[in-house]
Amino acid sequence: QDAARVTGRTFILDARVQGKVSVVTDRPLSRSEYFEVFLSTLRANGLVAVPTRGGYRIQPSDGAATQPTRVGSRGSPANQFVTEVVRLKSIIAAEALETLRPLVSKQGSITANRNANSLVVVDYADNIRRIRKLVREIDRDSAASTIINLKNAGAREIATSLQALATQGGGEGVRVPVTVVPIDSSNSIALRGDPGAVAKFASMARELDSRAELGTEIRVHRLDYANAEALLPVIEQLLGQGGTSGAAVVSDGEAGSASPAPSATTSGNGISRRGPSIVTRLEGTNALIVAANPEVQRMVGELIRQLDTRPEQVVVEAIIVEISESLARELGVQWLVGGEDVPFAVTNFSNASPNIVDVAGGLLAGQFDTTTTTTTNTATTTTTNSAVGDGLRQNAADAVLGARGGFAGFATSLGGNAVLGAIINAVQRDTDSNILSTPSLTVNNNLKGSILFGQEIPVSTGEALSNNFDNAFRTIKRQNVGIELEVTPQINAGNEVRMELRQQVSSIAGPVSDDFSELIINKREINTTVTVGDGEIIALGGLLDDNERRTIHKIPLLGDIPIIGELFKSRGRSRVKTNLMVFIRPTILRDPNDARAFSGRRYGYVRGRQLLRNPDQEPSLDALVRDYLGTVPPSIAPRPGDQIIYAPGTTAHPATGRISETSVPPSAPGDR
């Protein structure tokens, strides 16, 4: 009560605070001095005044660090509990924490903020000011830095050796005395750390560089992604060999007995400046062997490192949509009249079926037959036939069997031996088609890829006779018919893909005519170069075709007579509408994770189609991958809202939703 009356502040007593304290002074105190003495008295008795809204809360000092306190020690009484943020410039927060922890009072706390490289201290204001002074003394950058330019050895090679020495003997958590960073652009290394260690490592780097000057080195560069055969001419040109001297191809089977390649004398146009340089490749191992001085070795090694990188891949998906409608109608009348005393007359139209002449020939075939009687010892056989009659009957049968639509006819006698006949034919054809094709392929960046779904058919290219003109032969070539996609992608820096494309859709339309058996091939082809963003769909091209044709076959003069003239005509009408569009979509696969995700989506689509057909059975695709390939089917994580269909024999944990592992019975002893 006395402290509240003198200082004008409100104090809230914790239930754990008990007892009274008497303070005797030798002189009058000001209000601020009285408050400082009050806080010192609380501190001496294990209590602390924690600022709250509108006053102070008096409580035991245990646990005071977790209560809201004033932030910042400046202007605060020495015995007031405050929170201070100490920002570090040079030393690491975790290291400073270990140094300063013993200086914090038992009631306070200190934590390290590694992201901001700072310390958060909760303690009495006078102790925090003491900690801040100490931090100013130790938070100084005493590390030394230097750059060593290398003339002979490679920066990465020297850096790797020095880093191994720097970490040798230091356990986990022990700070490395020096940091080594290779700089490839200038073939130098940067050292930073303890001044003594930096000086020692700099001396070792110079010593290693000077020793690398002596002699010619031979190194084997095994390529992971690049092709040694394609890379060899590039290195030859850089070495000034021009691809003629100093290069050899060593056969893997004869490597032990092959004679050494001749020394190459550089032409002065390459990177080699002293001593001969030889580069060769080992056939069958995709490796390059380089014999050169250290400077050339460094440059060649850096070149190979930059070129031998995992290529990005592009999945090119095409969507080919063709919607067509065709309508054809034909109507016509054919007439035939003839006899011994009546002139022969006939109306014959090319679009009419069956042909009335063929039908009439079949009816008259019997007049060309001859009767042959054969008598033997046991029997007498009489046959009636002829080659002409058989041919007429065959033509009539083919005409009737090959007729389209509906037809009707009649024949009547005009008296004497005159005959009148007619055939009426009518046909209508309606055809609708909706073709959707989606060819796709995955190809490495800057490489050509192609895919074909179709057939290889024989196509005649010519005919010739033998030297004696008694044997004709025909030359044949094979031609692809179907859906073909050919693409060369190039990924640019803007996350776009430049593609050189050839898209072709071809099909067999049939023979040219009944008399000419050569095939007609429908072909739709696009050759273009486009640039498309990753994952975007672009229309390559298309065709909107509406073809209508009307034909009239008639007898001159007779076909022009009103009304009656329709009996001497054959009409035909056809209309074909075609809508064709080709779309393309590239997807960049930059790393194996992208490839796995894409494969999982495509695998999941096919797997889902199988599940729709047989929901109660395991998809045959999963069984094939598991049993035949012996691996786990690819999958992707389900998205929110997806319905998960578990295969028979699998369960999901209620908490995590993860599918539990199930064992598959081995198909043979020893299988897992």
From TrEMBL:
**Coiled coil feature spans:** none
Any idea where this protein resides? Cell outer membrane
Q: Which UniProt keywords apply?
A: Cell outer membrane, Membrane, Protein transport, Signal, Transmembrane, Transmembrane beta strand, Transport
Q: Low complexity composition bias: which ranges?
A: 255-268
- The UniProt entry lists the main location of this chain as membrane
Q: Known InterPro entries for this protein? A: Bact_Secretion_Sys_Channel, GspD-like_N0, GspD/PilQ, NolW-like, NolW-like_sf, T2SS/T3SS_dom, T2SS_GspD
Biological processes, Gene Ontology terms: protein secretion by the type II secretion system
Give every Type II/III secretion system secretin-like domain span: 426-590
Write down the PANTHER family for this protein, in alphabetical order. Answer: PROBABLE GENERAL SECRETION PATHWAY PROTEIN D, SECRETIN GSPD-RELATED
Q: Of which family is this protein a member?
A: Belongs to the bacterial secretin family. GSP D subfamily.
Q: What is this protein called?
A: General secretion pathway protein D
